[in-house]
Design goal:
- The structure holds two protein chains of two kinds.
- Helices cover 77% and strands 1% of the residues of chain A.
- Chain A is an all-alpha fold.
- Chain A has a domain at 259-468.
- In chain A, strand 1 and strand 2 form a beta hairpin.
- In chain B, helix 3 (79-98) packs across helix 21 (469-491) and helix 15 (324-355) crosses helix 18.
- The mean pLDDT of chain B is 90.
- Chain B is 77% helix and 3% strand.
- Chain B folds into two domains: 1-273, no CATH class; 275-487, no CATH class.
- A two-stranded antiparallel ribbon of chain B has the order 1-2.
- Chain B is built from 21 helices and two strands.
- Classes of the chains: A mainly alpha, B mainly alpha.
Amino acid sequence: MHRVEIAALLPITITTLTALAVMIGIAIKRSHTQAFIGTVVGLAIAFASVILAGGVPRQVTPLLMIDHYASIFMGLIIVSAAGSALLAYRYFELRDTQPEEFYLLLLLATVGAEILACSAHFASFFLGLEILSISLYAMIGYLKERRHPLEAAIKYLILAAASSAFLLFGMALVYADSGTMEFARITRAETDTWYPLMTTLGTTLIFTGVAFKLALVPFHLWTPDVYEGAPAPVTAFIATVSKAAVFAVLLRYYNSSAGEHAFFVILSVIAVASILVGNLLALRQTNVKRILAYSSISHLGYVLIALLAGRDTGNQAVVFYLIAYSMTILAAFATVTALSGAGRDADEIDDYGGLFWRRPLIGSIFTIALLSLAGMPATAGFIGKFYLIAAGAATEQWLLIFVLIVGSAIGLFYYLRIIEAMFSAAQPVAPVLRPISVAEGAVLVTLAVIVLWVGIYPQPILAVLARR
Amino acid sequence: MILVWLIAILIFAGAVAPLAARWNPRAPRWIALIATLLDLGLTLGIWAQGGDGSTRWIKQVDWPWLPAFGIHLHLAVDGLSLLLLMLTFFLGAIAVLASWTEIQSSIGFFHLNLLWVLAGIAGVFVALDLFVFYFAWELMLIPMYFLIAIWGHERRQYASVKFFLFTQLSGLLMLAAILALYFAHGQATGVYTFDYLQLLGTPLSRQAEFWIMLGFVAAFAVKLPVVPFHTWLPDAHSEASTAGSVILAGLLLKTGAYGFLRFVIPLFPNAAHEITPVALALATLGILYGAVMAFAQTDLKRLVAYTSVSHLGFVLLGIFAWNPLALQGAVMTMICHGFSTGALFVLAGALQERIHTRDLSQMGGLWNTAPRLSGAGLFFALASLGLPGLGDFVGEILVLLGVFRVSTGAAVAAAIGVLAATFYALRMVQRAFHGENVHHWRIPDLTPREGAAIALMMAVLLWLGLYPQPVFNTFRPAMDWLQQQVNTIVMR
């Protein structure tokens, strides 16, 4: 292997080595702090290597394609994983459990996500996805003495396994027809007109498997239970790392076999259904984690619009929106984590009654996060939504834009409900408040600053996206 | 540069207010008052200085913001923006004074919202880049939402969500329209820009022009409000605190009218001209409907809110009459309505603070116990019904004269609206201030602080009614330019 190829692989290698180091560290001496610091430092080095190694697109073996988008996605994945790790420390500290292995799982899941972001081949696609999913099962059920996490883990296990089966079968069909597993070669084999039936069927099945992971309607049923049941830092991880990684591979796959009207129609229907169903189902929820779960369904629907719009604008809009969304939802779950006491997670709307008056800083940050999810100006979500509508308008997808607008308006109701609760004079029935740790405070403030900064001056990110 | 300062002062003062509240609970009030007065002073300075006459724009700044999208921080004022800016800062100061004793909880955060909503409104009035305009348009929504939702009256949650939803939904339609225009212009000319001056005269097919315009109209029609889209208004106005009502009625509604004048007509003259019959019909409907509804209200603030619907109908009528007289009338009505209705809300707030109700049937006979307050009530009621010698009269008579030339029917109907205004305004005065004091109210009269604010507004209205020429001179160049745009269409 050439030296530059090794350099390009550095982020994945470093994350893997960190996982190994943390594992050996645990074997020598059980120490939560040590595992935690090892994880954060490893991820920081991995992030630095993304920046250093990012540059010229490089195909490393037929399996991995480390190009501009892959680097951006890896950066996003590592930052989100580090954010989740920072949140996890205090969260597990408060709970009577052995938390060290959690970081191991988190690092492995991150490796899987990074591989997904770079994968250009069915083998790496499947490997990455399975590394990510299997680590996630254990992460979701990590608090094994409690009922909800276990239930959530089993649900996720069964549905993810089913979706993997779909995915595998789809890959097999495509392979049977085209004789290749490389994304790029599949297209090259069929230059003109229509795909043969088997490839169409296979790709449809692959999209089905991906839609499961992204929780797009009608494959969304696991989302609310898993979001609610999983420990808050893990929910943050699912909402950011796993979604971004799977979307990265979808983006690559769709772009390589783009221009297919059959898929265009199917994906449009899925997008419309996700936006409307996600937003409508969120209306009746009283649990903040469930609201964010349903809202994530609709947000992924929004991103599909940009994917369908295609071209450079569309692809940039996808990446930008995912960055904006990840930072925002991370801030939201950081608030949930920071407020969760040892007994249970602070996930009922009533827990947030009068939060702003009792804890102005956390209340403001959660408000900023919710306003960003709602797409209000001066937040990252606004520029993201603007970018999506721009991508749609550039290719004249007026129907999809209209659905996005209607969806955003419905979304306002439930975001405002949480905000209303925070600004009301009501006191929570059973306060689950605890003082926040320095790490949590730092994460919260950093994320809030990022969300506002991206909302007011996104030029640096736009410049990075435009660089090819 | 000074335009950026105007907004920066408000944003900065707003950010400082909650911090200062820890040090002294009274500090935010003074900070807010000083910031608004400072801005008012600066705009008066610009006004006194005047433009150099070389362009329509008296002041301009143009900085790149997001060059990747062709977005510039392009701010400029012409006569129209300048007048509306002065109105903004004047009413801003009034709003601070009016809530001096009313707001007693979380004073710092209240003034943060108050100043930031003013910053958003000022941004709307000076933005010449459609992205910046939309940014400011949406930005004023959040603090306004909080002003209603936190410091409002009984049904504040309902009213604030309704307000937010109406504005946000229509705003997103406008965003889609802005982007459609952006790409249409880019595809036609190769220049992708949000700059208003460049987007003027974008070649559009008839259908495209119509649909894009409709997106803009959606946002402005909700804000103005045009009648079928007005239902958020009575709730929001009556549930908001005094400052909230003053800003809503005095300023937020004007952003809708301003949008028609600045964007809809110059950007889409053909399509706008085509919808004239509908606009005229809806405007007269609004005038009459607002007047009838106002007459039927028992809630004082709700009554005043419906009079706004009626008055803003005149503005819409004036805009779509397509002649200079009516246009001048529309602008005049916008400005005077800000003062007269703003003052009525201040008085309603002062009354509510004293007797803890807005119900007209609980009032009566207040003249004896609070003569200054009642007298002021009569004055502004008369202004509102269009008494000659006060500002509103000038605006409405010009609109009627202008409209009469294009549509006798609309002019007659609108004139009936003026007549109806007499009924609701006098009924309000009679029910609130005259008659027996059956509930034996004994209330303190206007304090010097309230009195000063009210007296200032009276003076301005009198001045606008008796000698409006300086104001006409200020917005004449802007209106002349608009008229040129219009003429090319109407002549065809």
